[in-house]
Amino acid sequence: MQERLALLKNQALKAIAGACSIVELEELRVRYLGRKAGALTEVLRSLKDLDDAEKRSVGQAANVVKNELTDAFSKRLADLDTQSAKAGIDLTLPGRRRFIGSKHPLTIVTDRIVDIFTGMGFEEILGPEVESEWYNFEALNIPEGHPARGEMFGNFYLPGGLLLRSHTSPVQIRVMEKRKPPVRVIAPGRVYRRDAFDASHSPAFYQAEGLYVDEDVSLADLKGTLEVFSQEMFGTDIRTRFSPSYFPFTEPSAELSISCVICGGKGCSVCSHTGWLEILGCGMVHPQVLRNVGYDPEKFTGFAFGMGIERVAMIHYRIDDIRHFYSNDIRFLSQFREAW
Known about the structure:
Elements: H1 2-18, H2 22-33, H3 39-45, H4 52-87, H5 105-118, E1 123-124, E2 130-132, H6 133-136, H7 148-151, E3 156-158, E4 162-164, H8 170-178, E5 183-192, E6 204-214, H9 219-234, E7 240-247, E8 250-259, E9 276-285, H10 287-292, E10 301-308, H11 309-317, H12 330-333
Parallel strand pairs: 1-5
Antiparallel strand pairs: 2-4, 3-4, 5-6, 6-10, 7-8, 8-9, 9-10
Helix pairs in contact: 1-4, 2-4, 5-11
C-alpha cells in the first residue's frame, strides 16, 4: 500500500506540473482528489480492509500525500492564472495614462472662500437645507406680507410650513440663538429658488454667508474684511467699490463690486462697459434681527454678507454660462485644478 501511495504521488505531481490550462488542472484534481472517484480517495476507502497497525501508518502517509498534492494544485493554479493574465497583454503597446480625478470647480472655489475667512478668524458652520419660515424669513426681519418675501425670493414650499431655504442667512439665526457674542462664522451651502435655468440663474445654487457680531463692530470692519477677501480671491491689483443697496436683514446695506477682471476696469462686454462686477451683498446686521435672537442692539453690533459661489467661480475662471457647472461634461470639469 505504501508503494501504491508513492507511485500515485509521483504520477500526480508529474501530471500537475505538465498541466497547460486551468481546465486541464481541474480535471487532474478530480482524477486524484475527487470525492467520488479520486485515486487517493479510493486508497482511503480501502483502509477499512487493513489491520489496525497498517491502517494507522497508511492513513498517515495518505494524509501527507493529500496535503502535498493540494499544495501542488494551488501553486500550479496560481502559475496558470499569472500566465493567463500575461497572455492577454501586449507588452509592446504603449502604456495607458491613468485618469486622475479632480475637485469640482465649485468645490475648489468654496474651499478657497472658506480658507480665506477662516484665516481671518471666522469659523465654518453648516445648516439644514429644509427650514421653517421663522428661520428663513421672520427672524431675518422679513415678516409675512413683506414685499421682499416674494420679490427677492422664489420659494419651494414643503408640507407642514417648511420650505427649501432660499439663502444661507438662516444659519446666522441658528448660530446666534445658541451662542453669545462674539460670533464670527462663515456658512457655505446650497440654496433653492424658483429661478429659470439659464446662463446666469439656476434653481439650485450655492452661497456663502458671513457674520460677525461683537461690541463696537463697525462698517469700517466690514469694508476692511471684504477688501482683504477680494484681493485674496481675485488678486492684489483688484479695486473694490461699495454701493448703497437694500436687504431687510441689514441696515445700512450695500453691494460690493470689484474692478473687472477682464478689462481691468476699462470697460468691456463682460462688465457691461462699466468697469465693475458686482460680487456680493452686505451690510450691518439690522437691530431687529439682533433682538430676535436675544442680543441687545444697544450693546452689540455686527455685519453680514452673502455671495453666490457660482458667480465668484464664473468671475475667477472667466466662465460665461452657469450651466457649465452642472453639465457633468468631463471635458469641462477636468480643466480645473486648485490654483491657489
